[in-house]
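SAMPLE LOG
Freezer: B-3
Tube label: C17
Construct: single chain, 186 aa
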Amino acid sequence: MQKKTLLDGQKIQITIKRLCHQLIENHDDFANTVLIGIQPRGIFLADRIHQELETILKNKKILKGNLDITFFRDDFRRKDGLVTASSNSIDFIIEGKKVILIDDVLWTGRTIRAALDALLAYGRPEKVELLVLIDRRFSRHLPIEPDYIGHQVDSLNSQQVKVTWASEGAEDKVILLSESTDKNNK
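STRUCTURE (predicted):
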């Protein structure tokens, strides 16, 4: 397995700050905007974005929630074994609000489609935008594009993008994993 580091520690922090400043440009004081992290992996990025925004905006209260999409996925019945859902953590109504959906990696678009369906249980938003740390271009199954992108990567379907976070006990890092084609590396 070959590993290529796409982002790590300081680069991730700079990317998060840039994304936050882009959000502030478009949403000003967040009076009518909420952040929603998509479970399981998007919540770590949503937490970091939320924390950075409150620091930049001098502890302004910004609403943030976590959305589980397990039973809205189009492939959940295809998995072997029992499917375990996470709990939703949205203690506000999104009716008429601007929603920023946050996920770590955008690949096929199916996770985002499921999130859009799940989101409707909390009301009808005025607008929905998508923020991702990594955009794997050229691999979409659905016509979904992010509004805010941390980093774009052109990758093969056989490759995997893995994001780890310090809050999980690892280090802040994004790596691209590829199968080794060299027989000596196997």
